[in-house]
Design goal:
The protein is α/β, with parallel strands linked by helices. The chain has one domain: pyruvate-formate lyase- activating enzyme, CATH 3.80.30. About 40% of the residues lie in helices and about 10% in strands. Helix 7 links the parallel strand 4 and strand 5.
Length: about 250
């Protein structure tokens, strides 16, 4: 499903006197830089609207296509209104192909971090999703590589398997990693109170228990060693404006 009128709807919302300037988060569920974005340019047009109004935006993506929009992002960053995070699951290009086939290779994501940082755009890395027993051991290397590329912030997210995703994940493990399947599933169950998913706020992103604590400690040690802070960049709504001469919606 493509929301072809999203940029126009966004601009109308920003123009409304009811709009209170606030951070807009892109890619909360679906990556806003999927391959089709190269053709449709919906994300770019949304960024054009955000830049026009100087409304802050936080972007998280797995695709290097974000560098296409450095011109708009750097303009927003001048007003403390743009932060970009690249999610990196693995540095193993072969594993990436079977885990995230529609995303940019690890080296391309690191290159994107470097380009964004060089353009003055605050950039971070999200080690995500962390799959215990399969990718968790890569966390220190990912954080160091991202720091070397210019990342100034970092976080991580444990793999989540809501609803029908869990059986699909089990099937994926059976197909590609049958020798590790039970180890991975058992680790996940230990993180999720015996199940494969935990929807509770506060634990669903990190898990709980001994393995969750071990991963958290590994992240903290690796983050400090790499010299990058925990959390996201600071964004401000102070520069928000409605463009001079723009007409307010009649029925806003």
């Amino acid at each position: 499903m493509v929301k072809e009128d999203a940029p126009e709807l966004l601009r109308a919302e920003l123009m409304s006197p009811k709009w209170q300037p606030q951070v807009i988060f892109l890619s909360g569920v679906t990556d806003c830089y999927q391959p089709v974005e190269g053709k449709l340019k919906l994300t770019r047009r949304c960024l054009e609207a955000l830049a026009e109004f100087r409304n802050p935006v936080f972007i998280i993506t797995k695709n290097r296509l974000v560098t296409r929009d450095i011109d708009l992002l750097s303009e927003l960053a001048r007003h403390q209104a743009a932060v970009v995070w690249l999610s990196i699951t693995t540095l193993d290009s072969g594993l990436r192909k079977i885990m995230e086939p529609r995303t940019s290779p690890p080296l391309a994501r690191l290159a994107a971090i470097r380009e964004l940082a060089q353009a003055g755009i605050p950039v971070g890395v999200n080690v995500a999703p962390v799959i215990p027993g399969l990718t968790d051991h890569e966390m220190p290397a990912i954080l160091q590589a991202a720091a070397d590329a210019g990342a100034v912030a970092a976080g991580y997210t444990m793999v989540r398997l809501p609803y029908g995703v869990a059986p699909l994940f089990e099937q994926w493990l059976e197909t590609h990693f049958p020798d590790r399947k039970e180890k991975v599933l058992n680790r996940l169950r230990s993180l999720r109170g015996g199940g494969l998913n935990d929807s509770r706020w506060g634990t669903r992103m990190r898990g709980e228990g001994i393995f969750a604590d071990q991963i958290r400690q590994m992240f903290e040690v690796a983050r400090r060693k790499a010299g990058i802070r925990n959390g996201g960049g600071e964004l401000s709504t102070a520069a928000f404006r409605r463009p001079p001469g723009a007409q307010l919606p009649l029925f806003a």
